[in-house]
């Protein structure tokens, strides 16, 4: 999986965020290459350069990122993400998403706004990788990043990954035939 993603990244355009942001589309996917300890563990276990994921939201000519992090599901200005984040960010287009599906995915995220981070879910997910076994999943009201993004689109009839949202990793999204790498974003 990692080799395929690295090959895609090698051919991608590297562009400054300020130049790319005008080309961002509602509902596209941001994949993050974190350098922290937890990010490195996720990257190692999933054999991927990615450790985190978010969705693009546009409002009044501003770009935001919907994401599930330690404080829960939040909406944050993308300029703040670019300023604060220690790692790389890649921009992926959801190639076959209709405008209604994009709107619906973001409406789904708005309904989850403020809900808790899914700590038990991420532990279950990581154990499933380590043990190569996926136990049954109970519905809950908490989210980890890739679970949120996968569920948002799955609720609109567009499966970004073949597995349950509860077992979707950033790596699964990076190799999805529904996503196309557009940019490797650079800090300016």
Report on this structure.
This protein is an alpha+beta fold and 188 residues long. The protein has a single domain, classed as endopeptidase fold (from Nostoc punctiforme), CATH 3.90.1720. The protein is 38% helix and 26% strand. The chain is built from eight helices and seven strands, in the order H-E-H-E-H-E-E-E-H-E-H-H-H-H-E. It has helices at 2-10, 17-20, 37-46, 78-84, 99-112, 119-131, 145-154, 170-174, and strands spanning 13-16, 29-34, 52-59, 62-69, 72-77, 87-94, 179-186. Strands 1-7-6-2-3-4-5 form a seven-stranded mixed sheet. It starts with a helix and ends with a strand. The mean pLDDT is 90.
Specify the structural class: alpha+beta
From the N-terminal CA to the C-terminal CA, the straight-line distance is 30 Å
* Fourth CATH level, the homologous superfamily: endopeptidase domain like (from Nostoc punctiforme)
Overall number of strands: 7
SSE run: HEHEHEEEHEHHHHE
Strand order of the largest sheet: 1-7-6-2-3-4-5
Overall pLDDT, averaged? Answer: 90
Q: What is the helix content? A: 25-40%
Q: Quick one: biggest sheet?
A: 7 strands, mixed
Total domains: 1
Q: Which word captures the global form? A: globular
Topology-level CATH name: endopeptidase fold (from Nostoc punctiforme)
Q: Which architecture name does CATH use?
A: Alpha-Beta Complex
C-alpha-based Rg, rounded: 15 Å
The top-level CATH class is Alpha Beta
Strand content: 25-35%
- List the uncertain runs: none
Number of helices: 8
